[in-house]
Amino acid sequence: xxxxxxxxFIVGGLICVCGQLIIDVFKQxxxxxxxxxxxxxxxxxxxxxxxPFIDFxxxxxxxxxxxxxxxxxxxxxxxxxxxxxxxxxxxxxxxTSAGITSAIVFGMIGxxxxxxxx
Length: 118
Known about the structure:
- The protein has helices at residues 2-24, 30-46, 50-57, 59-62, 66-83, 86-113.
- It is mostly helical.
- Helix 2 (30-46) crosses helix 5.
- The protein is globular, with a radius of gyration of 17 Å.
């Protein structure tokens, strides 16, 4: 179990280091880096490579933003097999709705509880 935790920590950290290098070295915005990581996660899932990556890295692969792209494509492909082309849209929303809803609700609570600085 300790080795699994260590691998997760190292892989997640390396993903974060790559993101920071994209921002610092290539002078890109955080929005660009986040979008790039979502696309990379989507491509890796479409090629069938993200599940083995999750098996190896555990939380190191599921916590970073790359897993959001993985979830979008994974849900779309699963639902497309069952419902056809309309399943692509349904599948994306089914798998990601809990995370998106949580972000909206907690963002709203934060906005109500705290005042922004001027």
